[in-house]
Amino acid sequence: MEINEVIFPDSFPKIDLHGYDRDTARVAINDFIEDNIKMGNEIIVIIHGIGAGIIRETTVKTLARNKNVTDFKSSYSNRGCTIVKIKLTK
Asked: What is the model's pTM?
């Protein structure tokens, strides 16, 4: 599945980062990606909220640096969450 085909992000595994600080969010995102690789989930959703944009910025930087992330984008209907496509190892 391609990331642009995601219409209902609620049907995918998600992590909610509300209340997290930058460092905790970064670790949680990387752990969530690793867990979903093991479970075979190619699409995941990260809920970071809108707020001041600190956790959103951390999310974008973390995803850009993670070698297992092939693509990510903000959701059409909710800019407080990011849809992520991860590379499943064979």
From this structure: 0.92
